[in-house]
């Protein structure tokens, strides 16, 4: 019989092996799934994982990699900090939407003014909006003990309705011939978040993601607050004994992840998305959860995981175009990836032995 | 005008998916397991149920299909959390994401297809609604008056003690998870077959999450779940009525009502549990904790 | 071994990765005797009884019960064969009623009314009054143990295993328990009694089998040996006697007055607790678990803050300060639970040094951690307190209980506190580590610190402290000098039998 034995210390390479194995297993299972659906599994896997980087259309799709990875990494960095402390913000999607709305609101209020202050003010407003949306579950948990999981998630739906209301109501483009959706910020230069270096896909959101990776890495590995966050996740009582106030930690983690998600939303609204529509949320907030786990809650891992999942987005679109695979293929891949990751993670926490049950 | 018989029937119908899923999750959580994948199991049940009903022309077969699909999906969760000892929160989330993706992928051919007609039942209430109502006392009785229910509660309350007495903690939990999955799948199938009458992507729209909140609201009691489900059925119907009556509030804001109500209820209940600290209505002692039999 | 033995074990062996928990263990128990299983923590007592109760299967060896082979696949089979067990950490379900708890321990429980009647019968027969409909959460430790015992007795066991049953009882409550056990023995039930309390075993047990490092050292009649001799057999060496000399009481350092707090989880609120400890003095605080110990150390460490003026250090009011600020002022603490409270099991010893020594040892500058300094401090603790570990990079959870406890206590002592509060400093620790920890506490006091030792081990308190106070239901008695205090007097200070009735034995 198979039996698990807790490890007291895992070799360092196992921590890297689990995500790699999970990706390989996902490709295998995905190939199997495609074969069952009547597609050529090799061609499908190649289209999703290889062609966006090295295929004939790579020139177009390569910059897209950073465009998609930017928000994922930015959001996941914040989420990972909270997950380390055992604080489950799963409403980043909502914070992303509200951040986008708040940032865009500044731009629309300023329109048609000119000024270098506009874009920084939008970034601040986006971060503040996301922060505020994240602080709602924080306050409700601290004051009343309400589950931050359920509250942050409910707020995703509320934020989606809010975006729809904004797109149909107060933020609707007066020159949009009655179509829902705000003005396109890409066409309002002081508020636009353009591609900074042509052909790379780098915009301010990608820069912010890079900064977030460095900052959260510094926080978690060198700063005493990061140390306290890790301690609180592993042993809450020990953290309190060390002097951590749990309420302050909840507010910090939810506030930080909310602010980063809000910023990601703003960069998207002012950049690649261009406007607030009734379907502004694009699932980045949920995919970022997978990115955070796949990156082992480590900023550098998150960077790699963000790039990988961005690849599946682009590859998925390509596969839809080339092989007419269903659009939701990517979602299934992402779900499977998380399953396999959790399963292979067991290897790092336990030693698997064959033998009689104890 | 607000509460006449037709409105009550609407309320009953709107409450049923949440009632079924929340009853299932009550069983799961009383066994000490937190399965956050309810939304994923519901959406899977919604699609599988719709497909089965469409293929056979029989709503009954559809409900059966929904329940089986929900249970099958829940077994992934059971395998991961009970045998590979993965984190229950993360695994439940993964289940929801996976279920949403899977249904979006396989649901395309069913978009725009009409569901077979639901047969009526006594008092104009269909059989699934009756089943949901009947399950409330049945689950209460099983939990509180039978040996099986006692063992299930014991496992959820203190898995180490239950193990020391020789009970099969893992077996009890896997069974509870599968039952919870079947009920969530059934609830999902009700949405597609009996409420919306068609399949659309993401159609459960958070009902699974609301069901999770209701379990907390209910204090892990089936009767409380019934009250909670009716409350949300009521809010939903009220909101629809207000929309229909042309109230001067934008539709998008009105439709926030069920989610805001969930948060409100969660806050009130959590606050009561936090300050009252009463033994009844408290969470099962081992809820969400991984069980690993060591020496 | 004779034909009259009820239970025999021959050559039982059980190996876990890295440890041989039981090595060729053979012994026997006769009907009607109270048979002690004596040994240090980690000597293999728990593994042995778990094999008898079917929770663990032996790698080698065999057991017989009543002459028939005894190889239970699970506890159910063991119960069927006539083995009952009362666990050290109660295997009870707080949210369930007494009757439900008892039904769970039976394989074929009768209907409710019948079960209640039978509970009443057994309760009356053995003087163990119980209300079947009470929720277990509302019962005292002694009453909870009763539930376990009644649950066992309803299965009519012929061999009853009791795992450290008196660790949660006052001396008076323990007497009541032994009256019940003797009554059972008189009816022919064999009792296997696990303990490391030597005096208790000498007074109450007929025979004792002593385990050391998983092996049987011998089976003796405890009455024929002194506690010292038994301890020597248990430990394998003469016990070291601690050195109490060289201390002089100075100024009052730590002063607590009117300290009241809310109850922690499953705990007892503190009610108007007050005491003062001088420099160079050790105050011992005794009490049965759950009488406010957790709350007291939390209130002193700063995990919970109190009303102004309730905690003073060197005259300064520290009541409103959190743990870090109190450490800065010189008030340090070491809680009972090593894994998860005093230390983070998954973190390395270096990181665990940062946990409490960040401020006083300047391991953090401008918010950034100085990992090199932290490692140096961890290495110092390891060296000076003889912590057996491969190095400071080892996870705290990988250390044995004794070594981790030495590390945790050493971490606080090396910060040279003005006042140190420890809870259960030697709980679950082997004898040599316990002696080292006690000596270190005495030495700290000799250097002029005020020390408060909270413990459930009365012998330890008598050995260490200059004055003794009892914590009972959240109230602290006035401290009295330890010199000349007897165990009986202490027992009364601890609340006596807590109103439990003495068994009415109808011969």
UniProtKB/TrEMBL annotation, chain A:
<feature type="transmembrane region" description="Helical">
    <location>
        <begin position="248"/>
        <end position="267"/>
    </location>
</feature>
<keyword id="KW-0812">Transmembrane</keyword>
<keyword id="KW-1003">Cell membrane</keyword>
<keyword id="KW-1133">Transmembrane helix</keyword>
<feature type="transmembrane region" description="Helical">
    <location>
        <begin position="279"/>
        <end position="295"/>
    </location>
</feature>
<dbReference type="InterPro" id="IPR001851">
    <property type="entry name" value="ABC_transp_permease"/>
</dbReference>
<feature type="transmembrane region" description="Helical">
    <location>
        <begin position="149"/>
        <end position="168"/>
    </location>
</feature>
<keyword id="KW-0472">Membrane</keyword>
<dbReference type="Pfam" id="PF02653">
    <property type="entry name" value="BPD_transp_2"/>
</dbReference>
<protein>
    <submittedName>
        <fullName>Sugar ABC transporter permease</fullName>
    </submittedName>
</protein>
<feature type="transmembrane region" description="Helical">
    <location>
        <begin position="117"/>
        <end position="140"/>
    </location>
</feature>
<feature type="transmembrane region" description="Helical">
    <location>
        <begin position="328"/>
        <end position="347"/>
    </location>
</feature>
<feature type="transmembrane region" description="Helical">
    <location>
        <begin position="302"/>
        <end position="322"/>
    </location>
</feature>
<feature type="transmembrane region" description="Helical">
    <location>
        <begin position="69"/>
        <end position="87"/>
    </location>
</feature>
<feature type="transmembrane region" description="Helical">
    <location>
        <begin position="202"/>
        <end position="220"/>
    </location>
</feature>
TrEMBL record, chain B:
<keyword id="KW-1003">Cell membrane</keyword>
<feature type="transmembrane region" description="Helical">
    <location>
        <begin position="174"/>
        <end position="197"/>
    </location>
</feature>
<protein>
    <submittedName>
        <fullName>ABC transporter permease</fullName>
    </submittedName>
</protein>
<dbReference type="GO" id="GO:0022857">
    <property type="term" value="F:transmembrane transporter activity"/>
</dbReference>
<dbReference type="InterPro" id="IPR001851">
    <property type="entry name" value="ABC_transp_permease"/>
</dbReference>
<keyword id="KW-0472">Membrane</keyword>
<feature type="transmembrane region" description="Helical">
    <location>
        <begin position="244"/>
        <end position="269"/>
    </location>
</feature>
<feature type="transmembrane region" description="Helical">
    <location>
        <begin position="127"/>
        <end position="143"/>
    </location>
</feature>
<dbReference type="Pfam" id="PF02653">
    <property type="entry name" value="BPD_transp_2"/>
</dbReference>
<feature type="transmembrane region" description="Helical">
    <location>
        <begin position="34"/>
        <end position="53"/>
    </location>
</feature>
<keyword id="KW-0812">Transmembrane</keyword>
<feature type="transmembrane region" description="Helical">
    <location>
        <begin position="89"/>
        <end position="107"/>
    </location>
</feature>
<feature type="transmembrane region" description="Helical">
    <location>
        <begin position="209"/>
        <end position="232"/>
    </location>
</feature>
<feature type="transmembrane region" description="Helical">
    <location>
        <begin position="60"/>
        <end position="83"/>
    </location>
</feature>
<dbReference type="GO" id="GO:0005886">
    <property type="term" value="C:plasma membrane"/>
</dbReference>
Automatic annotation (TrEMBL), chain C:
<protein>
    <submittedName>
        <fullName>ABC transporter</fullName>
    </submittedName>
</protein>
<dbReference type="InterPro" id="IPR050107">
    <property type="entry name" value="ABC_carbohydrate_import_ATPase"/>
</dbReference>
<feature type="domain" description="ABC transporter">
    <location>
        <begin position="254"/>
        <end position="498"/>
    </location>
</feature>
<dbReference type="InterPro" id="IPR003593">
    <property type="entry name" value="AAA+_ATPase"/>
</dbReference>
<dbReference type="GO" id="GO:0016887">
    <property type="term" value="F:ATP hydrolysis activity"/>
</dbReference>
<keyword id="KW-0067">ATP-binding</keyword>
<dbReference type="GO" id="GO:0005886">
    <property type="term" value="C:plasma membrane"/>
</dbReference>
<dbReference type="InterPro" id="IPR003439">
    <property type="entry name" value="ABC_transporter-like_ATP-bd"/>
</dbReference>
<feature type="domain" description="ABC transporter">
    <location>
        <begin position="7"/>
        <end position="238"/>
    </location>
</feature>
<keyword id="KW-0762">Sugar transport</keyword>
<keyword id="KW-1278">Translocase</keyword>
<keyword id="KW-0813">Transport</keyword>
<keyword id="KW-0547">Nucleotide-binding</keyword>
<dbReference type="InterPro" id="IPR027417">
    <property type="entry name" value="P-loop_NTPase"/>
</dbReference>
<keyword id="KW-1003">Cell membrane</keyword>
